[in-house]
Every structure is written in structure tokens, then in C-alpha cells.
Predict the 3D structure of the following.
Amino acid sequence: MRVFITGATGFVGSHVAAKYAAGGAKLRLLTRRTSRTDGLEGLDAELVTGDLRQPEGLRSALEGCDALVHVAADYRLWVRDPEEMYAANVDGTRELLRLARETGVQRVVYTSSVATMGFKSDGTVVDEATPVSLADMIGHYKRSKFLGEQEAIKAARSGQHVMILNPTTPIGPNDAKPTPTGRIVVDFLNRKFPAYVDTGLNLVDVDEVARMHVEALDHGTPGERYILGGENLTLKQILDRMSAITGLPSPTMKVPHGVAMAFAFFDETITGKLLKKEPRATVEAVRMGKKMMFASSAKAERELGFRVLPIYGALRSAIDWFVQHGYAPAYGGPKA
């Protein structure tokens, strides 16, 4: 089987590519001219240079492939030009699916996000059936992923074999960029996390997410959404777990959302607009933080054979990888 994978130079995509390679698939991987490819070392794969914002150039890469695994996305919580994000996440997805149909690719796995779900502020655990609309999406990333997911659903309803996966917050090794979640770990390791806000995430082992990208080709129902999650944890619980692993102190001061919003507004204005650099905090991120992103993966467990794993191992692997690769100094070891 020949598989074309987008996003293979990214965090989740590199794990997905490794899983397909381990299963004997012939890989064709999309890279950009600016992509780091060190995460693909050791893979027997054909690398194709291209860009989702110029999808027609990917037609030849899709020809002769049995499956498309579309993992790539513009994943940033702050972006200077939002149109670039919509061009990649919405237009790029729609056109890539069209090209897959036109070149005879039989099966598609589309990596969406749990960000497209209808989260609540009271900690309610949501699932794929929880009502949601575009109006519920906070920020350009969530809106663009919601609209991109709608393109995948539309294609599936028109008869294309498109499986839709919605990972929660993947954690594990090889988060080279790092992702916004990986940045939480790095900041904690570098003791740049003096306080926390009252918010919650669902953390999932990236290795299990990658395994589902292989299994999804043959299981489940095209056009259906499948949440791939792990443990529902408050931010404070996540910080406490990292403290237990490393022996580093967990912050004890909780910052009200109003204070966090004021800091984010200042940081976004000074760092983002004036200095033209990515701010550490954004107004949209604080607004998102008011909702507890707690989710259930029961549907994926029933229909895809997904496993909800304890997050300790993946969190420790992420911490060790960041330290080993120079993102943070070595820590003193776990508490006694």
C-alpha cells in the first residue's frame, strides 16, 4: 500500500508516518521548503516538496497512492495574517480532497481536532453528539479547523471514503516545534510557570493517536467524527503531575481569568503588534481557557478499538525528550 501523508514533519504526523512505516506501507511524505526533516530520519520514504496553500501542485504526489492521510494543519494560537491559516486549513483541505478523488485515491483519513467540539465552561464531558456550531469556535485556529472539518464531512456525504479523527491534546516525544501544549511542558521545566489559571484539558498519548490513523483506514464509518482522548485533567493537575515526575515545584498561585486577560492583551499588543513576535499569551487563548476541554472517547473505543491510556508514560516521555534535546536543563529527579 502506498500512502501519501501530509504533516509528517510535525509532531503528530511524524508519529503517524512511523506507524505506517512499521506496518510496511510505502510512504510519500509532504514537506515544505522550510520544514525540518530530522524527525523523519530512518524512514524509507519519498519526500515531496509542496504547500497546502498551493494544492494543485500536489496532484502528482497523490497519483498512484492508495490512501491519503491528511494530518497537516496550521496550528498556532496567534497568527499575524489569519488568511494564511484559512488558506491551509480550509481551502487546502477542500482542494486536497478533490485532488484525491480525481487521482483515484481510495481512502482518506482526515486529522481534525477536538477543538471543533462544543465545550462548556462547567466541566461537562462532551462527545461527538454534543451540539456545536461555528459561533462556538473561539479564535482563528478553531474556526479554521471547524470549517475544514465541514469540508471533510461534505466530501464523505458525497460518497468519498473519508474518516475523521479528532485528537484531544497529544503529548509525547518528538514535539520539536514545540506545539502550544509542548510549550507548557517546556515552560514548566524552565521554571517559567509561576502561576496557573483555572482551565482543563484532555491529554492523550501521541503514540495511540498515531496507531488510530492506521486502524481508521479499515474501521469506523466515513463522515463520522471520532474523538481520540485520554485523561481529563485541570491545568493544575497537569502541573502537579509534572512536579511529581521531575521534583520541580508546581505553582500554587491561581490567577483570575480577568488578570490573565489583561496580561494577554498587553502581551499581544506589545509583543505581537509592535515587536512583530509571537506573544506568550493571547486574548483568544485566555478566552478558550474559560472552557474546560473535557471529552469522552467512548465512540472511538467502541468502533475503532481505541485505547484510553494513563497519561503518565507519555508525559514522562515528553519531559525526557525535551531535556535530552536541550529545550530545558536536566531536573533533579522525582520527589521522594
Notes: The chain has eleven helices and twelve strands. Residues 82-102 form the longest helix (21 residues). The first strand starts at residue 2 and ends at 6. The mean pLDDT is 91.
